[in-house]
């Protein structure tokens, strides 16, 4: 167990090794500890890879950073952006942005914040390799205007920056951590609602309320524990036994928990399907023909596959932009209705009446191989000899090296159209490994990205979405739900923020309050 001397004054009891182990692994969890504070233990699928926000990803690991660091911008469960450390922001032109900041922020090491420190944080994220570094590629210069404001000059129109600042690249660390980032390998240096107290790596993490927190959140949890349980069935058993208060779950485990009297909810998060990368036919010549890609889309019975994989907790769709994005257009969900006869007609028109071979990259993580296996019979029915290529250990290398024309995968539905475009459509996007560029799509994207008027921008992003669907760059199956279950005799206020796959602890309250 690693622990550290607190750098803040607090009335919350500090737990030693034996006490923390009992709190996280005993047969029951109590609504409050012996001093009357409200304590919650949540199961996590993974430990904290570091406490440096530069390296944080979405998913289970995100909570470790979100607990300790304030972001410039926050967002609610509908995806609306709200003030955080930044009190206001504005695009004065498509490539100029201004931001005002709070100066009452106190970090857990006792230091303060001003615009100079915000600029230093953003510069660090912009120049340090990390999960979301690419989100700041559009920033050309950061200029401190005065103590509580700064301006950003962009090299291209990018209206996704406020949303980016609600993620880890918007998490502010203290000057000490800027000066010596190695401090963040084993400790937090934030101004968030909680302070890391002690932890056993990849096992137990214990946070206490930060008495210096001055942000807009009104948190109720005094002591926050994360217990690492990497198997979802084991998480369910821990919840049923009372060892933890909240878990992640698949739909079947969610229903088991509900049948045992626990509360549960879900949120549409990711889209799963087959990504048709090789649109120029470099590896699989057939995929260069849009009719072939359209045939693959017509061949899959989305409703049947989606129901088999995710029960009622899914939404079949022909599109990859999620419901929280401005690009979402309901009419595109059933653009490719199940029509195997039409699929075979298109294959014949494209010169492949007898089908072709289609190796599909896959990995065993996240159930992706099972999802692919559920779709393969539909491709076989129209003559496509699709095979599973399990490259779990080097999935992204195989993708990046352009070894496969198609891949089974999942992608977050997102909350920002520009971000989805950057992740899936841009020439340097991870899900565009063959760097496909089409002048018509490029023009649509540039038009949408440069539009400042909200309604007009939504219309233009919907045009991008429509083009991608019509040209069958992907063969999605469905948007499916992420689930959580919890002990509602103890805990209220559990919800998913838009686009998040794990509930964040900011709104958790004692049951009945």
UniProtKB/TrEMBL annotation:
The keyword Repressor does not apply. It comes from the Bacteria. It is found in: Cell envelope. InterPro entries: Peptide/Ni-bd, SBP_5, SBP_5_dom. GO terms for cellular component: ATP-binding cassette (ABC) transporter complex; cell envelope; periplasmic space. GO terms for biological process: peptide transport. Residues 1-31 form the signal peptide. GO terms for molecular function: peptide transmembrane transporter activity. Keywords: Signal, Transport. Its main location: other. Residues 82-426 form the Solute-binding protein family domain. Belongs to the bacterial solute-binding protein 5 family. This is Peptide/nickel transport system substrate-binding protein. It comes from Glaciihabitans tibetensis.
